[in-house]
Specification:
This protein is about 15% helix and about 45% strand. By secondary structure, it is mostly beta strands. Strands 1-2-3-4-5-6 form a six-stranded antiparallel beta sheet. A hairpin with a 5-residue loop joins β2 and β3. The protein is globular, with a radius of gyration of 14 Å.
Length: about 100
Amino acid sequence: MRITSMDNMVTMTDEYGREVRFEFLDLIPYAGHEYVVLLPADDPEDSIGEVVILEIENCHSDSNVESYVSVESEDTLNAVFHIFKNKHSDSFEFVD
């Protein structure tokens, strides 16, 4: 994925070449890795408020280039989201 930013908005290009816009919410370090928490900007109404959590991978050939991969582990997703909720409990209303 390619990422460009404008304020807190980021545009990612997925593996199919489609551009998808997100609002960057936070960068969370966890278990020796870093994860971005993003809110889809062009979200359909039925999934409003659901965040996307992606793991950051640095490309070895260029230390200034990052790639983002899906997190497969449900435990990791839950742990990262729990950290995010604790950090931002004053800014967001979370529904369990």
